[in-house]
Amino acid sequence: MSESNTSRLAVVTPHLSRKLQKERKRKYKSVESLLEKWQQDADYLGSQPSQEKVIEVLNSSTRTTCRYELINGLCQILLDRPYRDNSKTKVPPSLKHQLCCEFEKRFKVSGQVSWSEFSNAWTERLNDSEPPSSQTLRNFFNDPQRDSCEHWLIDGLCRVLLDCSFEEWRKEVNRQSVMRLQPIVPSLDCDITNWVGRELLVKELLSALTGDCHLLSLVGMTGIGKTALATKLMLEPELRQLLPTVKTVSFDGDFPTFELVSRTVLGDAAANSEELQKESDLLVRLTLAQLRSTPCLLVLDMLEVLLEFDGEGGHQFRDRAFGQFFDEVVRTEMPSRIIVTSQYQLPTLAEGRYPARSRAELLKGLTNTEALQLFAQWGIEATPGIELDFLKRTIAAYEGHPLALRVIAGEMREPPYNGDILSYWHEFGNEIEAVEQLQKEPGARSREDKPRLDRYSPRLKDLVKTRIESAFHRLHQSHPLACLLLCMGAVERRPIERAHWLFFIDNYDREEQICAFETLQRRFLLESEKTEHRTLYRLHPLIRRVALDNLPEIEEELSSP
């Protein structure tokens, strides 16, 4: 029995009490004889409980709680299975996929599942004579929409297939997330000194953060520059002087919990306290106390991972600890400030009673002037006349979306165009014209009301994804090995070193490996993160998604030299 189980409480329902009492009367003459059996098996059941505690559980007519080892021992003796926690538990998609793959690897032979082998493995590993039915497992594994199940089921599957409890799996995921936390980096370019545009907005947001605003949320569609703007603000001398301590968290894991924030603010030692692990409310209070006592800038990136639809057109926090935390951030005075980035609007905080202490900034695309400056920094400069017109039309077609424009600039820089805007337009101008025509089509009430980026236009989202996919397929045609490297590197969810990238294609000539990697750099398909001692490389989430979609086909075609 794990140490975490022996120290926690478990729920006992009236139905379970009646079932245990019935089996006790059938198998044992008295509670004393039951306890004698417990004493014989104390090696795996734990220390024998008092007769009074056992009677209290067996005779309970209302929902109650008791120590886990007590109810688990009674279930083992009387029901021939461990205690089953029937509470619903959210299952991360990655864990479900991992369990499904491991299940098929161990128990599927020639396309058929050996349910008897699974039942034997379950019984042997868990000392449970009642494994879940084949229909229960089919329902869980085969329904892509099913993202929760009873705790006993997911915990048992973890123990049988992964040799760890569900709680241990979750803690390991959180531990690895904390270990890999790196300062967030700009999404527009690897060097923040190349920042252009949004000067007025930066001044406004700095004024808010140095004033009464406790919480600034930067929201907008993927690739629009939320993380870049957060980084720009984070590095501003005016804010650094006021808040010299900066801490960052990126919520890109499958099972983010408030523990990630508390570890970052309090440190591992405090967050690992056994008492805090049991009391999420206390963890929130101590984290808030630290932010009130010590001025700090806390940057929380990709907060959309924490949100789910509330059924009324808005969003709510999956973990109520985050709602409690943010409510208190805007309710009380504190010297610290928090910046969050999210693709979704945050829920209303503290019932909207403190509007001056929070601000939501919905990011739009770059203006023509800003985008042209950025093209120039990327090595694409247009001469007045037809070149400038073509470039402006490209910017307008994608409504100044930084990621889409960066991919276009990356293509323009590469052979055979080598920065020649007219050559690029001659070959791909029809794509821009198609976008222009699409934007003119009916579907909006008027020209002034046409879908725009600041209204989360689904049309623009589709256009940006189409642009990324087009660039991907052209990369496939011109640089197959670079395309293979892009797809294989997309399996990594975290930034990795250059050597790790090259390892994906280490069966190719060394010069070919380096050329493929540099091709991805020149086309701006790789983003770099600079730590104190090394540089790591990653893909933008949208580029990564497109690459993963194409990985099976590309890998089959090109994995052999």
Residues in helices, as a percent range: 40-55%
* Distance from first to last alpha carbon: 51 Å
Number of strands: 16
Low-confidence stretches: 1-6, 178-193, 443-457
Strand-helix topology:
Elements: H1 3-6, E1 9-12, H2 14-27, H3 31-40, H4 42-45, H5 51-58, E2 64-67, H6 68-79, E3 88-90, H7 93-107, E4 108-109, E5 112-113, H8 115-126, H9 134-142, E6 148-150, H10 151-162, H11 166-179, H12 199-209, E7 215-219, H13 226-234, H14 237-242, E8 245-250, H15 258-266, H16 268-271, H17 274-278, H18 280-293, E9 296-301, E10 307-309, E11 315-317, H19 320-331, E12 337-342, E13 358-362, H20 368-377, H21 386-397, H22 402-413, H23 421-440, H24 458-478, H25 480-489, E14 496-497, H26 498-503, H27 510-522, E15 527-530, E16 535-538, H28 541-558
Parallel strand pairs: 7-12, 7-13, 8-9, 9-12
Antiparallel strand pairs: 1-2, 3-6, 4-5, 10-11, 14-16, 15-16
Helix pairs in contact: 2-6, 7-10, 8-10, 11-15, 15-18, 18-19, 21-23, 22-24, 24-25, 24-28, 25-27, 25-28
Structure, explained:
This protein is α/β, with parallel strands linked by helices and 561 residues long. Strands 8-9-12-7-13 form a 5-stranded parallel β-sheet, sandwiched between helices. A 3-stranded antiparallel β-sheet has the order 14-16-15. α8 (115-126) crosses α10, α21 (386-397) crosses α23 (421-440) and α25 packs across α28. The protein is globular, with a radius of gyration of 28 Å. Residues 1-6, 178-193 and 443-457 have low confidence and may be disordered.
